[in-house]
Amino acid sequence: MSSSRASPHGAQNSPEPRERGEGEEEEGVDPSQTELRMSFFEHLGELATRLKRSLIAYIIALILVSSLPDPLHPFGPNGVYGYNFLLIALINRAEAYYLPPGYKLFSNSIEDPVFAFVNVSLVLALVVSLPYIFNQIYGFVAPGLYQREKRAVRKYLLPFTILLVTGGLFGLFVVFKLVMRVLLIFYQPLGVQSLVSLDSFINLLLLVPSMTGLAFTFPVYLIPLVELRVLSVKQLTSARKWVYVLVALGVSIANPDPTDISSLPVVLPIFALFEITVFVAKRIEKKRAKAGVGT
């Protein structure tokens, strides 16, 4: 009888286990790790939801950019049924800005004007909706990242955006203008009419800023590798001449200008960015060495 009865001291030392409330977290478990317990189909469902949101945002941006009126002249006799689209006004202003006096755009086929309008709409809609799309992508992958990886993403997001936008604007206002000047040099000596294909003009107008924008972002990929000790300053400096040769070769191949004259404004800023990357890498290694000596 006495053996089956718990002692008062035993009852005080062994309290009854309490069930966790619905909003309470399990003790000792990182709340951020609860996302990792999602099943495969739950992850797939979340991915589908975020992709759907991104697609809806892109469609909304596409409708907006393709339907906005020209703020200066929203209505006029030269518009589509009297309505002047902003995109058409931008294409006309690009023609006046990039083409020398006396040169005009012409259409190779009946559908070229429509394709030009659609292509510009698609690219501008992507540019407008890209921040929201990136936010959805980051929201999906963030639960699987460590805190240091999240800090790295936040740390390099702003430099990446600045370099991408700077490179795009540089390509749009400097490189593309020079490309058009060089490509049109031989028109007059060969007696070619002062006409430029609308399809080729729009394709180059969209391609050149995209290429220069992406090319300007390479420091964002190299500097984290230095911080992770995957790359070193010695490796970067020893590969300098090969980097210069490969960059010049790549720009020459991608550049629509066969004379490569317009390649110089592209490769020179990339060379400068590479030297800035080496300088930043040296500072990272010096700071790391001082921290090692201090410990």
How would you characterize the overall build of this protein?
The structure is a single chain. The protein is mainly alpha-helical. It folds into two domains: 38-144, no CATH class; 148-295, no CATH class. Helix content is 66%, strand content 4%. It contains ten helices and three strands; from the N terminus they run H-H-E-H-E-H-H-E-H-H-H-H-H. It has helices at residues 8-13, 40-67, 86-98, 112-141, 147-183, 198-215, 218-227, 233-238, 240-254, 264-294; strands at residues 75-80, 104-106, 195-197. Strands 2-3 form a two-stranded parallel sheet. Helix 4 packs parallel to helix 6 (198-215) and helix 5 runs antiparallel to helix 6 (198-215). Residues 1-36 have low confidence and may be disordered.
Shape: flat
Average pLDDT taken over every residue: 82
**Quick one: how many beta strands?**
3
Write down the secondary-structure element order. HHEHEHHEHHHHH
Question: How large is the share of residues in beta strands?
Answer: under 5%
The total domain count is 2
Features:
66% helix; mainly alpha; 10 helices; single chain
List the SSEs and their pairings.
Layout: H1 8-13, H2 40-67, E1 75-80, H3 86-98, E2 104-106, H4 112-141, H5 147-183, E3 195-197, H6 198-215, H7 218-227, H8 233-238, H9 240-254, H10 264-294
Parallel strand pairs: 2-3
Question: How would you concisely characterize the structure shown here?
Answer:
The protein has 295 residues and is mainly α. The chain is 66% helix and 4% strand. The N terminus is likely disordered.
